[in-house]
Amino acid sequence: MPELPYSEKVMDHFTHPRNVGEIINASGIGNVGNPICGDVLKLYIKVENNIIIEAKFKTYGCGAAIATSSMVTELIKNKAIEEALQISNRMVAEALGGLPPIKMHCSMLAEQALKAALADYYKKQGKEPPFNIKEKHNNL
User: Fold this and answer.
1) In this predicted model, what pLDDT tens digit does every residue of 5-50 receive, in sequence order?
2) Does residue 140 surpass a pLDDT of 70?
3) Is residue 135, in this structure, part of any structural domain at all?
4) Residue 22: exposed, middle, or buried by beta-carbon count in 10 A (0-12, 13-18, 19+)?
5) Considering 20, 37, 62, 85, which one is annotated as catalytic?
6) 13: closest CA among 67, 76, 91?
7) Pairing label, strands 79-80, 138-139
8) Is residue 72, in this structure, part of any structural domain at all?
9) Is there a catalytic annotation at residue 106?
10) What residues form DSSP beta bridges with 40?
11) Confidence tier at 115 by pLDDT (50, 70, 90)
12) Which residues in 21-135 belong to E strands, given as ranges?
């Protein structure tokens, strides 16, 4: 089986993932999974004054799934919700120095978990999210 060409950043975030764990009393939780590959990502956010002050994750999946989960938490910490809403799967992949095409679905999992966590945050605030969640992955 050929070796996948992972960047140093992907390998770093896989072997030394940032922000692993749960947030008790999280402001929002996104729980998504990919039924094809079996990856599951649970993303927790803590929001104060419209700023994501903390982000943590738990992921069951391959190295790319763990790396993208780690990177998305780094990208959203200390960002306004409006800024976090702009983060796409491509931005996550680019921040990691790229992903093999066969692993781009992992970056989509990270984007969908972020959107699901933000949707949960909005619902807890009694508001409708200002976006639609794409059904690329299943919300669990």
Assistant:
1) 899 999 999 999 999 999 999 999 999 997 677 899 999 999 999 9
2) no
3) no
4) exposed
5) 37
6) 67
7) unpaired
8) yes
9) yes
10) 33, 60
11) very high
12) 28-33, 40-48, 51-60, 79-80
| CA 136-73-59 angle, 5° bins | 60
CATH number where 109 lies: 3.90.1010.10
Assigned domain for 64 exists: yes
Does 135 score more than 50 pLDDT? no
Number of domains into which the chain is organized: 1
| Structural domain for 57, as ranges | 8-120
Encoded amino acid at 25, one letter: N
Active-site choice (10, 64, 81, 106): 106
Q: What is the pLDDT of residue 34?
A: 75
Residue 58 located in a structural domain: yes
The amino acid at 70: S
pLDDT of residue 80: 97
pLDDT exceeds cutoff 80 at 62: yes
